[in-house]
Amino acid sequence: MLVRSVASLDRAGPGDLSLLVSSAYRAELQGSRAGVVLVTEDLAAEAAGVATAIVVRDPGRALSQVVTRLYPAPVPAPGIDASARIGPGAEFGAQVSIGPHVVLGARVRLGARTRLDPGVVIDDDAAIGDECHLGPHVVCGPRVRIGARVVVKAGAVLGGTGFGFHSGADGHQRIPHVGGLVIGDDVEIGSLTTIDRGSIDDTVIERGTKIDNLVQVGHNVRIGEHCILAGGVLVGGSTRLGRFVVVGGGAGLGDHVSIGDGARVGAGSGVFRDVPPGATVSGYVARNHRETLRVQAASLRLPALMAELERIVAERRGDA
Over the chain (320 residues), what is each successive 10-residue block's mean pLDDT? Predict the structure, then answer.
C-alpha cells in the first residue's frame, strides 16, 4: 500500500493515511475509503473493514511523524537578500537564510541554518541560536537571547519595553527597562504574541515551552520548561510559572502570581493568587476546578430557588 497524503476518515481515499482515536468515529470509519488507518490496540477491532490498519500506541503522534515526511517543510537557499540591512559587527553561522527587507542591528549573532523571513527586525546585540525560524515581521529588541530550534511566527514582538510606570500627582513616569529576554531551546511562539523584556532582571522562557497566538507576557516573568500557553493568555509582570504548566485560552494571570509545577489553569480563568503544584483551577476568580463546577451548578438552581422564596414570602404576607 502506497500512501501519498493524509486525510480525515470521511474524506480519505485509497492513497490516504488516516487515524482512529475514538469509537465515537465508528460511523466515519465504516464509510471510509482510507488506504491505511492508524489505530490503538483497543480500537483495532473497529478497523476490521479497512484495507490496512496499523496498531500504534498513540495514533496522533504517529500521524504527526508521518506528516513531516509526506510534507517536508521548504528549505530556502542559504544567503542574504540584497535588500537586507546588516549592522556593523554582525556574525552569521553557516547556511543562514536572510530574506528581503530584514534589518539587523549592530553585533547581532545568528546561528547556523537559522532562517529570517521578510521584514524581520533584530536590534543591537541580540543573539539567535542554530536552526531557528523567525516568521515575517518578527521584531526582537536589544540583547534578546534565543536558543536553538526556536520557532517564532509572524508579527511577534520579543523583548520590547514592558508596561511599567511610576504614578503620582503629576502623572505617570515610565520605569526604565534595562533587563533582557532569554528564550530557551525548542520554544515555539505564536503570531502577534508579545513578550516584554525585564525591567531589571531578565524575562525568561525556558526550553520546550509552547506559546500560542496573541499571548501577552509581561516584564520579569519566568516561565518554566515545557509549559503550554493557549491563545489570548495574559501573564502579568513578575509572575512565575513552574514546569509543565498548562494555561487555557483567554486566561489572565495577575502580577506577582506563582503557578506551581504541573498546575492547570482553565480557559478564561482569572488567577490572582498562587496556585499549588499539580492543582487544577478555573473560573473568575479562579479556584479549585471542582469547587468552580459546584458553584456553577448551584447558580443554575438560583432562578428556581428565588421563585420558591418569593412564593413563601407571598404566602406569609397573605397569612398576615
Answer: 85 89 82 87 79 87 88 87 97 96 98 97 98 98 97 97 90 90 98 96 97 97 98 97 98 96 96 95 82 80 86 79
Q: Which of 133, 137, 172, 219 is catalytic?
A: 219
The CATH number of 79-287, from 2.160.10.10, 3.30.70.20, 3.40.50.880, 3.30.70.360, is 2.160.10.10
- Print burial letters for 127-157: b (CB count within 10 Å at least 16), e (below 16): bbbbbbbbbbbbbbbbbbbbbbbbbbbbbbb
Class of residue 247 by CB neighbours under 10 A (exposed 0-12, middle 13-18, buried 19+): buried
Q: What number does CATH give the domain 5-70?
A: 3.40.1390.10
Predicted TM-score (pTM) of the model is 0.85
Whether the CB-CB separation of 34 and 10 falls below 8 Å is answered with: no
Q: Where are the domains of the chain?
A: 5-70, 79-287
Catalytic site residue 219? yes
